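ugh ok fine here u go
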Amino acid sequence: MTTPRILAAALLAAASVNAASVSIVVLATTDLHGNLYPIDYFTGKPAARGLAKIATLVHAERAREPNTLLVDCGDTIQGTPLEYVYQKSRPLRADPMMLAMNRLGYDAMTLGNHEFNFGLVNLRKARSNARFPWLSANTALTPGSKARTFESYLIKTVGGVKVAVIGITTPAVPTWEKPENYAGYRFEDGVETVRKTLASLTRERPDLVVVAAHAGLGDGASDTENMVRAIAAVPGIDAIVFGHTHQEMAEQRIGDVLLAQPKNWGMSLARLEFTLESGQGGPWRVVEKKSGVVKVTDRTPADSEILEIAKPFHEAAGRYLSTEIARSAAPLDGILGRVADSALVDAIHEVQLHYAKAEVSFASLFSPRVSVPAGPVTVRQIASLYIYENELYAVEGDGRMVKDALENAARFFASCSGEACGKGPLTNKNVPGFNYDMAQGVSYEIDLSQPEGSRIVNLTFRGQPLAPDRKLRIALNNYRAGGSGGYSMFRGAKVVWRSAEDIRQLMIDYFTARGTVPQRPDGNWRILPELARKTLELEAQAEAARTGLL
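structure:
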């Protein structure tokens, strides 16, 4: 006689026999920005980064788990001198990043905003070189446009599981780019586009849905540039892998949605693993998911095939960077360039004020690692000082705009008072250093004993207090003009002039003609109290020692 317990055990055993389980791994990179070789082109030294090293990690992951997809989240064909030389002169047959990604077997890439930097001709060329789709569900055509559409999603069956990858691009492209660089395209809201795309996917019946977004996590529904947090609230998504903000996030969950972000420049590889089960031939369902990042280190070997593909492009970049353009009478470095006025930042201002015919200039020190030796100054040093292909704008502004921009910049520092100003850290880790702008054409002090929004004191223009309604012509880059980094006061300002060349090239042209670079700053700004300034200098020197600059 069969007892209920025996019957239950038999049914469970039969179910386990008929049940199937499979693991699917999604590997992802983002914001590679032309980093193929494991080198810092701005210092000429080896660096733990680049697609050649990422390739080694990808091969190892595929060996462990054959059911693998490889995707990229955009900002791929711009950023290093290797890509810059190719994009500007095209001495070789095809885009180096696409050639390397083809060899590595990428399944898809999401369109990033920097893909538009060199114009549509260059974008189309790179896209035609790719043997994988460029995805962007929310990049649509304008009425009458004859441009080529981007695919909304990729459907691929891996290990018997039908996987959908939806591509989403930050819709803020028009705030940064010249209209001709995205002519024929419009950028729709990312959250609503995901909803629509999921609805259209119902006929495909995917078992696993991943969004690959070129947009940051953001702060909620109001953040239309970085809307990943809002996308995670859309039902029907299993995971989101994303980029754009150059942060790293191994794992986070919003509701039941898994999120991960690899580090930029090929410094880490995101790994999202999904376990799916199917009972008695029924549909697959996700029963477990987790993510992490696999970091590139100094000991990670570079893949020889990727290095071979990159070699001619790397050599062309080396010849460009070694071109002498000026001389420096003394060595200069950026170690203290964010805590005290610097000749290096003044060099940027000098160029911007000259070409924009402006009265005030805003610029940041993108990296304190910049160093200019005494003697010949090459393109490499100028490129290390201005690492982005930003364009120069002149906008109509006023004193209030300048004050508000400086207050926003001052958020880079923490408040302190009295003896507490002698204790660090006095930098705000939530504000990236590249979003800390300094101004030229005005004089001012940053008083850290005052609360945020009231730190800029003794702000003067040509020796007189700067009136809020004083009209000014302001020089700044196109990203600041678009309001990035919290500089919303510039968004919507009338652009009265824009450069035909990027700021780095303007600097090369200017100092080639001048023959020398600035040797000392004019001291137009400083940090208060004095104890806070000294503490910040010690922090900057300690960071330089930690990273090998001292």
